[in-house]
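TA notes, week 10

Several of you asked for a full example with nothing omitted. So below is the full record: structure tokens for the whole chain, then the designed sequence directly under it. When grading your own attempts, check the secondary structure regions first.
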């Protein structure tokens, strides 16, 4: 009687949500994994070589740089 029509989920809406979710997950791994891997490898190398945290810091910086590059590539791919 006085019911308002409920919006129907269309195929394009579901596709948009899936695209957004996969992009968010893709950006998440691109942000976290290189920094974590670089840091862990640096810690292991510092421990094995009995050095100061120089290799750990280098691994972290390289991981952050790789993360920035991977995110840049992701945004460039999304612009197409």
């Amino acid at each position: 009687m006085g019911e308002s029509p409920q919006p129907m989920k269309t195929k394009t809406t579901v596709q948009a949500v899936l695209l957004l979710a996969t992009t968010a997950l893709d950006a998440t791994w691109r942000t976290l994994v290189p920094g974590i891997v670089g840091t862990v490898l640096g810690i292991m190398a510092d421990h094995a070589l009995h050095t100061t945290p120089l290799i750990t810091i280098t691994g972290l910086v390289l991981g952050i740089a790789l993360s920035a590059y991977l995110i840049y590539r992701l945004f460039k791919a999304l612009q197409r």
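The mean pLDDT is 88. Use that as a sanity check on your answer.
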